[in-house]
Amino acid sequence: MTRLLPLTDTAGGCRCADHPTGPSSEDPRMNTQAFPVVGMTCGHCAGAVTEELRALPGVEDVHVELVAGGVSTVTVTSIDGLDDDAVATALDEAGDYHLAPQ
């Protein structure tokens, strides 16, 4: 005899693989900031920028949305946030990359 199990959640879709992949959004110290960056043209550029930003104290995660030859968006999750000067210095260390004027 087959017994059907009752549904405990009907919120459309399996959530068996739902698990956090980055820092907990519940940590009040975490700050996510988006920076407009010019000068990146390829994956190597994005990798260099990511490496330099991850080396900054308190940085937990870096994500680059590359727009080759245009204004890319670099999203940084860190403890207590970063100031523009720290990001600009890291971009300079990575290569010829700069914060875009806002």
UniProtKB/TrEMBL annotation:
It comes from the Bacteria. Residues 1-31 are annotated as: Disordered. SUPFAM superfamilies: HMA, heavy metal-associated domain. It holds the Pfam family HMA. Keywords: Metal-binding. Signal peptide: none annotated. One of its GO terms (molecular function) is metal ion binding. Residues 31-99 form the HMA domain. This is Putative metal-binding protein (Modular protein). It comes from Rhodococcus ruber. The lineage of its organism: Bacteria, Bacillati, Actinomycetota, Actinomycetes, Mycobacteriales.
